[in-house]
Write a structure and sequence with these properties.
mainly beta, 1 helix, Immunoglobulin-like, globular, five-stranded mixed β-sheet, 22 strands
Length: 270
């Protein structure tokens, strides 16, 4: 049995286990009122479906479904702490180093499929319960940047030769308790409608040229903003910074953010 006390999870004893267990915890509500423990060990996935603080052996072991994803219903809560059923989806995989983790976690209120949260970036599982990453569903929100072509949250590169470039701008919650960059982001159209943030790109030195115009659109998925820029060729030694703000944001504080960008080798797009 796996017990949850605060953020401390006691290890589930699996007879004959040879591989280290991997742990994560999903936090619902502004004050983390509901906590859903996740345990991956011996190729099996266990989830504290009812949020009662324990994983009860085979009763809370999940079976892989379509495309190998794990689906289950859990007891979560909204931003105000009101409890309700949520649909949880997990894509359990390993990264290039062989670490177990989550390539995707999504959650939505049952019956409200357009209001789901999804994750960006790889979420490595904690080797011990005390080191489990904490995946907070309902904020606080901040800007994040994702490469549009690769889906990576760490790859932020510009083509030195110029040309069209597209960024994915997220309004998201960072996953806590991991050195990797990963986020959970809500369905933005349901929150904000058609409004979009203000995004600009500046160069140092600027060479006297005006900054490139950036067109910002809400992605068809409704979960991220697409920032499209037509970039001039850029001399070596130039530094680039992307700045994002959202004067019309309606859902609590959302601080402005700046991101330093790197330059890719000629002709590279990722």
């Amino acid at each position: 049995m796996l017990r949850v006390g605060g953020l401390l999870l006691l290890l589930l004893a699996l007879a004959g286990a040879r591989e280290p267990a991997g742990h994560a915890v999903v936090l619902y509500g502004a004050a983390d009122q509901h906590r859903i423990a996740i345990l991956v060990a011996e190729g099996q996935v266990h989830v504290d479906r009812d949020g009662n603080g324990s994983i009860d052996g085979s009763a809370e072991r999940l079976e892989p479904g379509v495309s190998g994803y794990y689906w289950t219903e859990v007891t979560g809560c909204d931003e105000k702490g009101n409890p309700g059923p949520y649909r949880l989806c997990l894509d359990v995989a390993a990264d290039a180093s062989g670490r177990p983790g989550l390539k995707l976690i999504s959650t939505n209120p049952v019956g409200e499929i357009q209001e789901f949260h999804a994750s960006a970036g790889f979420i490595p599982l904690g080797e011990t319960p005390a080191r489990a990453p904490r995946i907070r569903i309902h904020g606080p929100l901040r800007f994040a940047l994702m490469d549009h072509w690769t889906g990576s949250t760490a790859c932020r590169r510009l083509p030195r030769e110029g040309g069209e470039q597209m960024f994915s701008v997220l309004v998201a919650t960072p996953v806590l308790g991991t050195d990797d960059e990963a986020y959970v982001y809500p369905h933005l159209f349901r929150l904000q409608g058609e409004a979009v943030p203000e995004v600009s790109l500046r160069f140092e030195p600027d060479g006297g040229a005006p900054p490139p115009r950036i067109r910002v659109l809400l992605c068809d998925c409704g979960r991220r903003y697409r920032a499209l820029a037509d970039l001039p060729p850029t001399p070596a030694g130039t530094k680039a910074t992307l700045h994002a703000s959202f004067p019309g944001w309606k859902h609590g504080p959302l601080a402005e953010a700046s991101f330093e960008l790197e330059y890719a080798p000629p002709a590279a797009r990722d």
